[in-house]
């Protein structure tokens, strides 16, 4: 396997080979496959568990660290992770702005907002000079967490921005007035590598890549990293890969465990220790319009996202 070499700030160079080996007989027999279930010191990534301290209490807020939740494959947990990570960060006293940058408006729906009823969205902010960002931002049911909503109108922006000067930095300019007021801005990207996603990467300090523990999710990672590298070289030299988050992990299946092993081999410490397991709780929260930290605060999903929040703050 050709393994990418990390450089400063989690930057990767070289080819990424994340193929799955057809012959898994040795793995199936337990020879070096994943963590030992009887060893409490080994996490689901197969590495020793690292101590992440409780986040310090803040005396003041801002300026925000902007993180883009990005993966061009749909259904890998981008929106779920944006909502629940944001809620967990807010629990730790961080002021958070969630940006719905997907024309499907799934992030807005997941927080109980009906996109088709919105008079103004992020589309108006980036395309109309008269629209005020603070007038569009909405509070959520989570104290300290706000939402910049979206709906299908945003799909028109991808076409309209093509003729704009500095089209790749439109979102960065739009967010600039409120960055000093928040500790984290989390951007939920659409499942593509088009102009909207490039805007999110150009506005961000870091990229979080939710990666479903399934073979087809691995295939697009190299393409995504190549896009991140191009944005870094041409638009945003400060952009880094903040971390890769394993989602929809099922420790009972050989396939999930092998995918996890392959990702950890390729990316090392850039893979978060926190892992999001499959659970029926997440679909429930979408219907309820609540993050899992409020809907099922004692569930394993809530604990996983609180653990992730601690890692994000520590990083």
TrEMBL record:
It holds the Pfam family AAA_31. Residues 1-51 are annotated as: Disordered. InterPro entries: AAA_dom, DNA_Partitioning_ATPase, P-loop_NTPase. SUPFAM superfamilies: P-loop containing nucleoside triphosphate hydrolases. Residues 65-241 form the AAA domain. May play a role in septum formation. Belongs to the ParA family. This is ParA family protein.
